[in-house]
Design goal:
Layout (H helix, E strand, L loop, with lengths): L12 H5 L25 E3 L6 E5 L10 E15 L4 E14 L6 E13 L3 E14 L5 E13 L7 H8 L17 H9 L2 E7 L3 H9 L1
Length: about 220
């Protein structure tokens, strides 16, 4: 399954331009030029429709009275180390589950994926893991933590020198391109997209489960 690529918290160039001045951000300096270099660390998030999973007692009957278990993947947190030739991202998350029938102890294993996406559409790598949730007799809710990690080539996640120069070059009033946003140029936009990576984590769903999430 190829996960949908739009993050719940959308990560765009506009977001990269926001916030305080500091290393790793693209920052507009008095409206003329951009003063700092973007981070090679990928954005981390959950693709649309993959942060929840619903299991049904009778397969194929997707009705509320047939729900067996629901689980949500949440509290995604990440750290990034970009000091070497390969950028390493580690993420942790929680899975919160609730079952409808609390009789007896029960163990449920749910698969999840971690995917590296480039330029918003190209899948660079994908791995599948699993988390195991244990319910005691009479217990309705349970929680478990999971983890994921990914590597990105730092050179691939860095802007070429000529593109970086176009973005960071100071422009003076009266220059021919003084009023032109460098990020609006096709070659700059394409280079930024090629150097933009995302690490996406979500439940590994069947087509039926994905369709249920998308249409409920």
């Amino acid at each position: 399954m190829t996960p949908r690529t739009r993050l719940y918290a959308a990560v765009t160039i506009a977001a990269a331009l926001a916030g305080c001045r500091g290393t790793g951000d693209l920052v507009v300096d008095e409206g003329v030029g951009i003063t700092a270099v973007r981070s090679a660390c990928p954005a981390v998030g959950v693709p649309d429709y993959t942060g929840d999973v619903t299991l049904f007692r009778t397969p194929g009957v997707a009705t509320a009275d047939n729900i067996d278990l629901v689980a949500a993947l949440t509290n995604v947190r990440s750290t990034c180390n970009e000091t070497g030739e390969r950028v390493y991202t580690a993420a942790t998350f929680d899975v919160l589950a609730r079952r409808t029938d609390v009789r007896g102890a029960r163990t449920v294993t749910l698969p999840y994926f971690v995917t590296v996406l480039r330029g918003g559409s190209a899948v660079i790598s994908k791995r599948v893991g699993s988390v195991t949730i244990n319910f005691a007799d009479g217990q309705e809710r349970a929680q478990v933590s999971g983890s994921a990690s990914a590597y990105v080539d730092k050179a691939e996640a860095s802007l070429p020198a000529d593109i970086r120069e176009q973005i960071t070059r100071k422009r003076k009033a009266g220059d021919a391109d003084a009023a032109v946003d460098p990020l609006s140029r096709p070659e700059v936009k394409a280079a930024v997209a090629r150097a933009t990576f995302e690490v996406l984590v979500g439940f590994q769903l069947s087509q039926d489960q994905l369709s249920y999430n998308a249409t409920r």
